Amino acid sequence: MRVVVDNVSKTYPDRRGASVTALNGVSVVAESEEFVALLGPSGCGKSTLLNLVAGLVMPTEGRVYFEGRRAPGRPITAMVFQEFALFPWRTVQGNVEFGLEETGVGPAARAGRARELVALAGLGGFETKYPHQLSGGMRQRVGIARALAVDPAVLLMDEPFSALDAQTRQLMQDELLGIWERGRKTILYVTHNIAEAVYMADRVIVLSRRPGRVLAEVPIALGRPRTAQMAGDAIFLEAADRIWALIRDQAREALRG
User: Fold this and answer.
1) 61-78: pLDDT as tens digits
2) Helix, strand or coil for residue 224?
């Protein structure tokens, strides 16, 4: 599924009723099966852009649309949030089945589909565990499995690993890339971490400070599958340096307010 964000602007009212522009004239395309990272300084509108694609909010100007054939009963998008957002009263199996229940899938079919995704996420044997019995990385894998269970055409991820420690974060990046390699969905991935964006994405969209606009699109010419050793590759370092050069002044201005 191809995602097209066409000249989108988004304005919100602040607490005093004044207009605040979060995004201004943003145009972005994510090709079918492409892994695209959205990166920029705090408050640049990355999450707003993701919410627009998800249909959770509507643009003030412009439009968001999708190109490609959609299977009957298959949602266009599913979201994985920064917070684990699991139901504490449901087991791993129950959490992964939730979206399938909402779409009317029968008990036997949804149980089988959920078991497949639990195994794919490396959680086999934990089906009957509750969220409080899992590590942070395992809880986030449940969230990813739940999103994938409904077979969305586009997977939207809003800083899904930012709450994890550095070692778990690296492991989860590799887990996600492995899952993506096997399924090849279109992914829009919000992050504030330059190394993470370069390591995971085919292309990085760099946004300016608020109001967010596209500063540049940086292609990542690393091969796949990605490996940790690539962090020392000249292509990796050059892409990271280019992105940092683009957002350094923007980040400083954002800190000043």
Assistant:
1) 999 999 998 777 778 999
2) coil
Q: Give the tokens for residue 253.
A: 């201005």
**Distance of alpha carbon 23 from alpha carbon 21, whole angstroms:** 6
pLDDT computed for residue 57 by the predictor: 93
CA distances from 239 to 37, 169, 253 (A): 13, 21, 22
Question: What residue segments make up the domains of the chain, in order of their start?
Answer: 1-70+157-257, 81-152
Just give the CATH number of 1-70+157-257.
Answer: 3.40.50.300
Query: Exposed (0-12), middle (13-18) or buried (19+): which is 248, by Cβ within 10 Å?
Result: exposed
Strands 61-67 and 2-13: antiparallel
Reported pTM: 0.89
Torsion angle, CA of 131/134/137/140, rounded to 10 degrees? -20
Between CA 83 and CA 237, with CA 178 as vertex, the angle to 5 degrees is: 85
| Residue spans of alpha helices (H) in the chain | 46-54, 92-102, 107-120, 136-149, 166-183, 194-200, 234-256
pLDDT band at 214 (very low <50, low <70, confident <90, very high): very high
DSSP 152-214: -SEEEEESTTTTS-HHHHHHHHHHHHHHHHHH--EEEEE-S-HHHHHHH-SEEEEEPSSSB-E
**19-30 vs 186-190, strand pairing mode:** unpaired
